[in-house]
Amino acid sequence: MRLSTLCTLVFAFACGLTPAQDALTDAKKALAAEDYAKALEILEGAYDDLKGDKVAMGLLAESALKAGRFGRAIEYSAKFADMDEENPQAHRLGALAFYWRAEEAKQEPGATPGKINGLYEESKGFNHHYLTLKAKDVEMWSVYGYTLYWLEEHEESAAAFGEAATLEPKNADHLNKGARAYRLAGKFDEAASTIGKLIAMDPDNGAFRKQKADVLWYKAEATKDAGAYGEAAAAYGRALLAKNLTSETANACTNVLWSIYGNSKEYDAAIGHLKAWAKAHPGDPSPHWWEGWYQRQKGDEAASLAAYTESWEASGQKWATGAVGVGEQHWRMAYPKDAKGQPDFGKPPTDIDKLYDAVTWFCKAQAVPWNWGTPAQQPIQKCLSIFLACATSGNLDAGARMLEKECLKVAPDNWNVLNNLGLYYRDLGGRMRDKKLCEKSLEYYVRASDLVVKDGAATNGAKCGVLNDTGVLFHFPQYQIKDMETGMKYYRRAATLEPESRANCIGWKDANENMGICMNALGKYEEAIPYLKRVLEQEPNRRVALRQLRTAENAIKDK
Description:
The chain is 75% helix and 0% strand.
């Protein structure tokens, strides 16, 4: 051995330092700095020197656990426990390592329930041993409760969460989880009692009150006891009276109330809860809306209309859903009833004024700033459906008046509204040979065409239809505009689009056929043929296209 090496060893010995002690010191510093990966790296680098040291093994398990290396944490905590069987920290680390490894395994492809449950079982064993040594560790009681929950040992899980709640009585989560476990164990009374403690902590919390009602509902479903259903319904009613009530909680309560009362047709009992809710929350439109829905199921259309109207007024005329409810109710009342007392929408409407009222209310809803999700869900779409109903029932003039007088006020840039008005005035003007009406049609159609091609949500098929219809207005002489050149611009634009299905797209086929007609009229027979053939590829027996194709081919032969 060289003298320098000997001197270094003598110096280290004299100072009381060893490589293992250096590693422990550095690892503790890294742990204190929350650099868990570094701590693990240091300790594993000195593993051969540390493997017989139970303190070092504990630090290895802790570092691996906190670094998220759960498999290695399992290895080190197991060795730690073997070295010191009654060391609480060894069993705590083992319980946590196995628990988080189980959670990690859930995200891994191919992990079987047996493997995952095996990890939970190991965690359970370590944790049980730990809690016999350290019974006041609230975190580990909670972990124990979760472990037993995943193992479906629900009554034992409830007991574990109960211990956590005893140690930390103001933590609502322990009571929540304990109540859930009791419910899953079929211990409904114990679950309700546990949630009662939650309610005592925060009597104004509607969600807590709903949880208790849920438990009573599960009990009723399990026992099929009429009295239990009544008890659950009363509990949901109390939840609706809570001072702190979210719309999510309220909607859940009313849905279950419908499940309880709807099948038995005890509508008035349910409505009683809704009226009490409205009284407790006078500025909330929701209870009135729900009453409207319940009254509709009851068959009292007038009472339903009144309740929906009250929901709109209670919101300060700002809740679009209320206005939609009123509109839908007017819509229903415009039709005759079927044998079950419901509107028969398959028959013509009997009250056009009611349909006009419906459109008016849908337009009120449309005018409110609102997140409708998609354009198809906007109230203006309901107006368009009513227009179609008017058109097919001999009430086209009334339908057009609704679109023009009401819908354009709130949706001036809706291409669908503009397109329908264009069609209405085009056909009316053509039938009456009235140029002013046709010019009014032109105004609507041109705007509709400009808007539809810019609408990213519009299908190419819809775009073809609007563009072709606009071209027809310019082109065909009965519509008084007599501007074939401009009409061709619209046809050409439609013909160059690729619809979702050529065979099923009337606008695309019509636009190509109309381009063929125009080209023939201009004597451009060679240019007409491709357009006409495109149509006939999709519809071989189309008479106009066949006739125009023969015209073009014969003209070319005669040259």
